[in-house]
Task: structure prediction
Amino acid sequence: MSLAKMVSGTVAAMVLVVGMAWTFAVSQERAVVVPAPADDSAKKPGHPETAVLAGGCFWGMQGVFEHVRGVRGVVAGYSGGPARKATYEDVETGATGHAESIQSTFDPNEVTYGELLRMFFSVAHDPTELNRQGPDTGTQYRSVIFYADDTQRRIAQNYIAQLNGSKVFAQPIVTRVDELKGFYPAEGYHQDYYLKNPRTPYIVINDLPKIRHLQQLFPDDYRDSPVMVGAR
Result:
């Protein structure tokens, strides 16, 4: 092994260790215990439903919901802007109207829309950060619930009012509730990104703590084996 590679490997290891230590120090403030929504649909047999949510980088959002029991699939993508601008290069300019989003397909007999929103607010992101999440800034990282029908809109709006009223967050929730006008899957290399790159410092620092918090705070809803896009 060359000296350059030895130095490079040592630096990478140090970055990883420091990143993991920093994650441990701050991860507890990234999860908030929130009450269940007072307004929610009852669990019932039926066709699969979808929930489109945005809350920062879609790598971590996808990782969280791939571990939720009752979720049948999670796709990373873009929502909020036009189809012709739904590419990573365009979205990252912050000028397309899109937000990095995920589309979760779920069984309404196993998990409700309101329960998914509870995990969204509790462990998936910080809903009090405006147009940013962690190290990522811009409107493409805004917090949004894209509702597919009036029931989803009502549940989302009532839940935000409930959480703001209970003051479980130190600051007001800035999550938008917007009509879903389209969801466009992201490029293949973004799908299951955290599973393909689990030791990347960004994933270690920003995303793996969210999955640990899901397991800790929602043990009955946590599934150890994630449902992967690449497995379908």
